[in-house]
Amino acid sequence: MTSAGITLEEQAQLAKALLDALNPLASALHARTSGLPEERMWEAEPVEVALSVLAAWKVVDAEVKRLTAIAAGTAGSYGASYEQLGAVWGITRQGARKKWPEAVTRPAARAGAALRLFGGTAELVRAPESGGWSWSGEGADGTHGAADTWCASKEEAAAHAGAFLAAHAA
């Protein structure tokens, strides 16, 4: 087995398929730069032929990177983590995050959260239509309370709920 996990036979077949796909592209690139017909590429100076082949590999490399990013994004959309992407690619989780920054989406912010302070509890709730935050809770002394206006952020709602809970501590 090769280091990529494929057999030598599979590697040889892959190399042949890539070269078969590359030759028409190299010939087309050479024809554009030299003005010679594509079928006459191999009659050119060896350095010109080699540079045409190298230019074709550059195009293939860019396309492989594009398709790789699509594959990573697809895996991420199905729930793959950066750790998993990195393991498949042979790099760290951080390396995968740097290589494909948009591949894995973070979970959406939770619609609500519980706050437990000073012996009481409060529930923070997000309004889906406006994105504003509210709270309702019960202090340790049994007093019930709720926000009378929507807050602009979760942190603001938590601050108001925390102040209520502190005022109604046992």
Brief digest:
With 170 residues, this protein is α+β, with helices and mostly antiparallel strands. The chain is 52% helix and 13% strand. The chain has a 4-stranded antiparallel beta sheet, with helices on one face.
Q: Describe it for me?
A:
This protein is α+β, with helices and mostly antiparallel strands and 170 residues long. A four-stranded antiparallel beta sheet has the order 1-2-3-4, with helices on one face. Helix content is 52%, strand content 13%. The protein folds into two domains: 8-99, no CATH class; 112-167.
Number of domains: 2
Low-pLDDT runs: none
The overall pLDDT, averaged over residues, is 87
- What percentage of amino acids are in beta strands? 5-15%
- Find the structural class using helix and strand composition: alpha+beta
Bin the helical content. Answer: 40-55%
* Major sheet attributes: 4 strands, antiparallel
Shape: rod-shaped
Termini separation comes to: 69 Å
Secondary-structure map with pairings?
Blueprint: H1 8-34, H2 46-77, H3 82-89, H4 93-99, E1 112-117, E2 120-126, E3 133-138, E4 144-146, H5 154-167
Helix pairs in contact: 1-2, 3-4
List keywords for this structure.
single chain; 13% strand; four-stranded antiparallel beta sheet; 5 helices; 170 residues; rod-shaped
